[in-house]
Every structure is written in C-alpha cells, then in structure tokens.
Amino acid sequence: MSKSPYLDIKKDFPVLNREFDGKPLVYLDTAATSQKPTVVIDAMDHFYRESYGTVRRGVYRLSEKATQAYESTRHKVAKLINASSDREIIYTRGCTESLNLVAYSYGRSVLKSGDEIILSQIEHHANIVPWQIVREMTGAVIKIIPCNDRGELFLEEYRKLLSPRAKIVAVNHVSNALGTINPIKEIAKLAHEAGAVMVVDGAQSISHMTVDVQDLGADFYAFSSHKMFGPTGAGILYGRYDLLEKMPPFQGGGDMIRQVTFEKTTYQDPPHRFEAGTPSIVEVLGLGVAVDYLQSVGLDKIAGHEHALLEYGTKLLSGIPGVRLIGTAEHKGAILGFELDGVHPHDIGTLLDMDGIAIRAGHHCAQPTMQRFGVPATARASLGPYNTEADLDALAAGIQKIRGMFHH
Ligand code: PMP
Question: Can you list the domains of the chain with their CATH numbers?
Fold first, then answer.
C-alpha cells in the first residue's frame, strides 16, 4: 500500500474546528487569506502580555528583546527563501505594499519614456495598478504576455515582447484566479538576457511550495504574512542587495534616516532605508512563528498534500454536469475556479455559506483575467494544507444541491 499523501493538521487551527448552525466550517478561501495556527495566536498574545515594546529605538531591556525577536524573523525569512543575506529582506505591510515599493522606488527611478514593463494577462491588480501609476509618471509602456485557454502563458509571445527597451518583467509565481504555476525560472532567464529585472508576485506561492529566490532568478519577490499562516499587517519584499543599494527611499520618516537637517537628509542602508516609521512589531514576530510552523510541517509535504487534494477536487467538480473549471493549467496550484451553468457565482457563494462552506465569488482582483475568459466573475475554492477530501466532498455535495435548486 502506498503512503497517504495527506497531512493531518486541521487540529492546529482553532477556527477550523468551529461550527456554523451545527455544521462544521469548511474553509476553502485560503487564497484570500489563510487561517492561523494556535502557535501563532499564542505567541502574539504572549508577546503583548509579557514582552511588548518598540524596536530599534529603546535602550531598555523590553525594547532590546523586542528588537531581537523582530530581527530574528528577518533571518528566518531570508533562510526560507534562500536570500543570500538578511539585508535583502524588507518588512512591509503586505504584498501590495511590497509591489508598490518596487514600482515607486525601483520603477520610477530607472524607467524613462518609451521603456517597457512586461506583465502577464493573469496578474492580480496589485501587480498591475502600481505599474500603471508609474507608467503615468515616467512615460513607460506596459506590454502583456498572453495566455492560452488553460491559463498558461505563451512563452513564445513573451520572447517576442522582449527587447532592449524592456526594463522590468513582473509576473506572479502562481495566479490567484486560475492557479497556474508560472515557469518563473525560464521567464527570469529570458528577462535577464534582455537586460530587464524580474519582479515576482509570490502571494500565492510562498506557503505552498519551496521558494528559492536565487535559483528562480528573482530580483524582487513579494509576499504577505497573512497568506502564510501569519497575521495581517506584515509583508515582505525580497530584493537583490546590489539593486536595493541604488534605490531611493519609498516613504520618508523615522528609522530610515542616518541624519536629518532641514537642508539635507541622508538615508540608512537597505533594508532600513525602506522601513519608515514604527513597524508592525507584533505581526512581524507572528510571521516568524508562522515561518517556523511552515517549516515544521514541511513545504514539500504541503505541496504533496495540496496536489493530491487538487487532483481529487478537479475530478469531483469536473464530474458535476454544468460545472466549467476556469484555469486548467498542467502545472497548477490548489485553486479551483469554476462556473456553474445558469447560476451567478455570488449565489453559489451565498448558498454554500448556508451549509458552512466558505468560498470566494467575484473577480478575485484579477479583472483582466476574467476578461480573458469572457466571464465577469467566478466561484473559487482554494485549498490549504489543513483541508481534507471531506471538505471537497462537502463542496461537491453543496454544488449538486444548488444545481437541483436551479434546474427544476
Ligand atoms: N498578488 C496575488 C496573486 C494575490 O493573490 C494577492 C492577494 N489576493 C495579492 C497580490 C495582494 O496581497 P495583499 O492583499 O495581501 O497585499
């Protein structure tokens, strides 16, 4: 008998053990945000009760301790993604802020009129809108890598877009609407050959697979704590140090300066140059505990678990008449976007919720992706390492029930 591909960690997540109207919660919206394990909740609670203080400023023990904990997360994150140094890890408030930081600081300072930014058809708005704002400021041009009907990028088309005018290529590692895992290593290699830098939106990959920024060839890699079992309000931007060193500040304020006079201000070296103001101290600490948790479960095991569930769920949903899966890439993360014939995605979401099943319905902050597939919205079930086959059985039964309601 072969070994089960499944983890058994639902018990680590208190909210997943609660019920709605006597029905167990079936949480299928991890792509929006992940639930939190007890270890993260307890560590943050403990810190507030026992050790809370500001970081990098205090001379008293509470602050020194807080600073140590705060900086140790930086080291954990650097190890997690195989950055070559802790100095390449910048704390932000989330993936969105990380991408804005790259666009405003790097993009705005290097782009000239006519330079090109290459994005893909299947980006989240967080990796589209900042570039459009920078386009307005610099006169740069945005080009788009198209995708096929499965949601896979056309690399041949991408090759054709690349020229010496291309300065930035910004693509997500995994699409939040379709689940497509993009071949970042190949995309980065081609970007570098053209002289462009590679920006990766890692919001949907970081807690689902092993990420090695050096092996991928990512010059920047952005993600949020809240999608990796940590709290909201913290995020990371990884940046190659030689690029960070030349970049101007993103925001000005306390902690990012060396010296301030009214005539002239000098800035800290990275990463502190990009960390103005009192940071999300406790959230960063929680992120550190989340990274420990991720590594104790094991990213390879998580990937195996989610892949097995994805196959199981794909089979279940494709077997339901009237269901059309949107996003059927060969290399896919555990995201099931779908339509049900004659039923609006929002109705699917509301009706499933009555059975305690939480999915997302809408455009998933990826309207250009929806436009590509000719739909205004989809229903989306997204999985995490705490989900089970029983969760997917509940989803399939819920969809069958809705079909019955609409097709009589
Ligand atoms: N990129 C992708 C692919 C996402 O899925 C998300 C979150 N839905 C983001 C960026 C933005 O992340 P956040 O809202 O945490 O800043």
Answer: 10-30+298-406 (3.90.1150.10), 41-296 (3.40.640.10)
β pairing state of 323-325 and 360-362: unpaired
Preceding omega of 271 cis (within 30 degrees of 0): yes
- For the question of residue 365 being annotated catalytic, the response is yes
Cis check for the bond before 164: say yes or no (omega within 30 of 0): no
Active-site entry in 39, 243, 257, 365: 365
User: Is this structure's pTM higher than 0.85?
Assistant: yes
Q: CB neighbours (10 Å) of residue 157?
A: 15
From the alpha carbon of 175, which atom of ligand 1 is closest? 3
Per-residue pLDDT for 367 more than 60? yes
Give the separation between CA 259 and CA 225, rounded to whole angstroms.
31
Count, residues in the chain: 408
Burial 246-261 (b: 16+ CB within 10 A, else e): ebebbeeeeebbeeee
- So what's the pLDDT on residue 1? 54
Q: How far is the CA of 42 from the centre of ligand 1 (A)?
A: 26
Q: Distance of CA 174 to CAs 140, 197, 223, 299, Å? A: 26, 19, 12, 15
pLDDT in tens, 347-357: 999 999 999 99
Tell me the pairing of strands 197-201 and 220-224: parallel
Instruction: Please say whether the beta carbons of 70 and 281 come within 8 A.
Output: yes
283-301 CB burial, b ≥16 within 10 A, e <16: bbbbbbbbbbbbeebebee
Residue 91: strand pairing partners? 236
Cα Rg of the chain (Å, integer): 22
Tell me which amino acid residue 223 is: F
